[in-house]
UniProtKB/TrEMBL annotation:
<dbReference type="InterPro" id="IPR050186">
    <property type="entry name" value="TPT_transporter"/>
</dbReference>
<feature type="transmembrane region" description="Helical">
    <location>
        <begin position="89"/>
        <end position="110"/>
    </location>
</feature>
<feature type="transmembrane region" description="Helical">
    <location>
        <begin position="52"/>
        <end position="77"/>
    </location>
</feature>
<keyword id="KW-1133">Transmembrane helix</keyword>
<keyword id="KW-0812">Transmembrane</keyword>
<feature type="transmembrane region" description="Helical">
    <location>
        <begin position="296"/>
        <end position="313"/>
    </location>
</feature>
<feature type="domain" description="Sugar phosphate transporter">
    <location>
        <begin position="23"/>
        <end position="312"/>
    </location>
</feature>
<protein>
    <submittedName>
        <fullName>Nucleotide-sugar transporter family protein</fullName>
    </submittedName>
</protein>
<dbReference type="InterPro" id="IPR037185">
    <property type="entry name" value="EmrE-like"/>
</dbReference>
<dbReference type="GO" id="GO:0016020">
    <property type="term" value="C:membrane"/>
</dbReference>
<dbReference type="InterPro" id="IPR004853">
    <property type="entry name" value="Sugar_P_trans_dom"/>
</dbReference>
<dbReference type="Pfam" id="PF03151">
    <property type="entry name" value="TPT"/>
</dbReference>
<feature type="transmembrane region" description="Helical">
    <location>
        <begin position="204"/>
        <end position="222"/>
    </location>
</feature>
<feature type="transmembrane region" description="Helical">
    <location>
        <begin position="116"/>
        <end position="136"/>
    </location>
</feature>
<feature type="transmembrane region" description="Helical">
    <location>
        <begin position="269"/>
        <end position="290"/>
    </location>
</feature>
<feature type="transmembrane region" description="Helical">
    <location>
        <begin position="166"/>
        <end position="183"/>
    </location>
</feature>
<feature type="transmembrane region" description="Helical">
    <location>
        <begin position="143"/>
        <end position="160"/>
    </location>
</feature>
Length: 325
């Protein structure tokens, strides 16, 4: 007795529903991890008396090192990729130092800037990526693609003028962190471009994290000499201190893991759209939570920047399609 078409279609429909539910859950977790770690960083560094951005970054990297090892070696989320040469290790260590600079700079900026303005500056990453790609590799995009970057920068300039809590040092650190993040992505494409040296983002994090801890530990001891005394004191005064640090560090790893999984299960265009929306959601939540004052000029500037990022991604995608024809 043969099965009817309706019966054959049923398992496919169920499978499609499960896949949709899995992807929706993954995106929610990605958003929660990214926004959560950002808001917790802000809370710890600005509202909680924990003024140690280097040590906080070291906690993040320590969690990433331990949890990456567990995820890859024991849970086998992705296959373990081995380092094949001393040259490859030096390249990974170089990326790790640049990555440390970007995360530390971003955390320092959160001590001085509102999350909303921090996100506006962070949205200029495509501008720095295009700039470094041209400077390092002489790779040119179409002029219309570069033209789309004008509102990206213009929006931040406008938002800066309308930001009530503008602080120059915080702005410089945020801009430096954004540039370092873009430089790391360009550098990664160059240093690990050969087939024998390519690592997926989870294996790269596995090897980068311990190097980052080794760099950040002496930096924290020298630049934040009273970090352990103050941290222990805060731990005694505030019973949730250690829980907040632990949750914050686990979220930092979760943000990396879910970013990898969302990239794996969606397209590059979907990821870009979701990323732009994530920044906007983070801004709204931060304003509601921290009650930082915003102006119409600031909101307008941020909106122009986000629209510029969307336009840049779209023009780049279209010209890539034309080139491939």
């Amino acid at each position: 007795m043969s099965a009817s078409p309706a019966n054959l279609a049923k398992p496919c429909k169920m499978s499609s529903k499960k896949q949709g539910l899995f992807l929706s859950s993954l995106i929610v977790l990605w958003y929660s991890s990214n926004i959560g770690v950002l808001l917790l960083n802000k809370y710890l560094l600005s509202n909680y008396g924990f003024k140690f951005p280097i040590f906080l970054t070291m906690c993040h990297m320590s969690a990433c090192a331990v949890l990456s090892y567990i995820s890859i070696v024991f849970l086998k989320i992705v296959p373990l990729q081995m380092i094949k040469s001393r040259s490859q290790f030096i390249k990974i260590a170089t990326l790790s130092v640049v990555f440390c600079g970007s995360v530390v700079g971003g955390n320092i900026s959160l001590r001085y800037l509102a999350v909303s303005f921090n996100q506006a500056v962070g949205a200029t990453t495509p501008f720095f990526t295009a700039l470094f790609a041209y400077m390092v590799t002489l790779k040119r995009e179409a002029w219309v693609t570069y033209g789309a970057l004008v509102p990206v920068v213009a929006g931040v300039v406008i938002a800066s003028g309308g930001e009530p809590g503008f602080q120059l040092f915080g702005f410089i650190m945020c801009l430096s962190a954004t540039a370092a993040r873009a430089f790391k992505s360009v550098l990664q494409g160059i240093l690990l471009s050969s087939e024998g040296e390519k690592l997926n983002s989870m294996n790269l994090l596995l090897y980068m994290s311990p190097v980052a801890v080794l760099v950040l530990l002496p930096a924290a001891l020298i630049m934040e000499p009273n970090v352990f005394d103050v941290t222990l004191s805060l731990g005694r005064e505030k019973k949730f201190m250690w829980i907040l640090l632990l949750v914050n560090s686990v979220m930092a790893y979760s943000a990396n893991l879910t970013n990898f999984l969302v990239t794996k299960h969606t397209s590059a265009l979907t990821l870009q759209v979701l990323g732009n929306a994530k920044g906007a959601v983070a801004v709204v939540i931060s304003i509601l939570l921290f009650r930082n004052p915003v102006t119409a000029i600031g909101i307008g500037g941020y909106t122009i920047t986000v629209l510029g990022v969307v336009a840049y991604g779209e023009t780049k995608r279209r010209f890539s399609q034309i080139k491939s024809l």
